[in-house]
From TrEMBL:
The chain crosses the membrane at residues 16-36, 75-99, 111-135, 147-166, 187-212, 247-266. One of its GO terms (cellular component) is plasma membrane. Its main location: membrane. It comes from the Bacteria. PANTHER family: ABC TRANSPORTER PERMEASE PROTEIN MG189-RELATED, ABC TRANSPORTER PERMEASE PROTEIN MG189-RELATED-RELATED. The keyword Transmembrane applies. This is Cellobiose transport system permease protein. It is found in: Cell membrane. SUPFAM superfamilies: MetI-like. It is a multi-pass membrane protein.
Amino acid sequence: MSKTNRKVQLTISKTFVYALLAIASFLAIFPFYWMFVMATNNNSAINKVPPAIIPGAELVTNFSNVINTIDFFGAIWNSVIVATLATLGVLFLCSLAGFAFAKLDFKGKNILFVAILVTMMIPPQLGLIPQYIIITKLGWLNDLKAIIVPGLIDAFGIFWMRQYISSNVPDELVDAARIDGCSTFRVYWNITVPIIIPAFATLAIIKFMYIWNDFLWPLVVLRDQASFTIQVALRGLIDNYVRDNGMILSGTFWATVPLIIVFLLLNKLFISSLTEGAVKS
């Protein structure tokens, strides 16, 4: 095959790949753009045929209606507290457990790890009633602790950290640290943690998004409007008689912005963790 034909084939292949990436990007971004368009229009513009496809002039009005209807900023602050503390707890506890399963030898390690994996197959709704009883006994109803504490440990987080540490922290490095007199926790903190920063970023994004978007459990344990997280507070935008879609989508749009910020901040580390090992020989 001549060089010219190879160049033509390579050009066609690149064009095809770029076209697929462009289509996929459009499909991924369009729902968010459509939500923004609806957040900037009133009901008449949203419901007309064909619907509006460019942003309108009602962004400030719709958001003002959101603020006047619910305690939007208070709910956002509650969600930030809950999601941040739960995520930090998961990063520390799950990485510590993952390190133990990956690098320590103790009796029943494999059985315990399998038991943790089995819990991932159980729908969380099945634990709703016993978890509610425990929270009631502790007196944590209508308190953010009722959301933070149950979210401090995560079976997927333990599995993810165990796999990442097993693949990226050499046993020789751990043995060398022990020979130098490092304790088990110091091996974890000074040797393992700096290596698994990309894994932290991936788990942080997943856990933060999960806690931020959680609706059922906060709805069950939070009663006072002052303690509502943003997903529970957004429910107050839906009226039984008059449905203002522009206001509802405005609240939803601005409630999504913190998630985008978190993803952008951790994006490079997230990609690094997913591609780790792809360039290894």
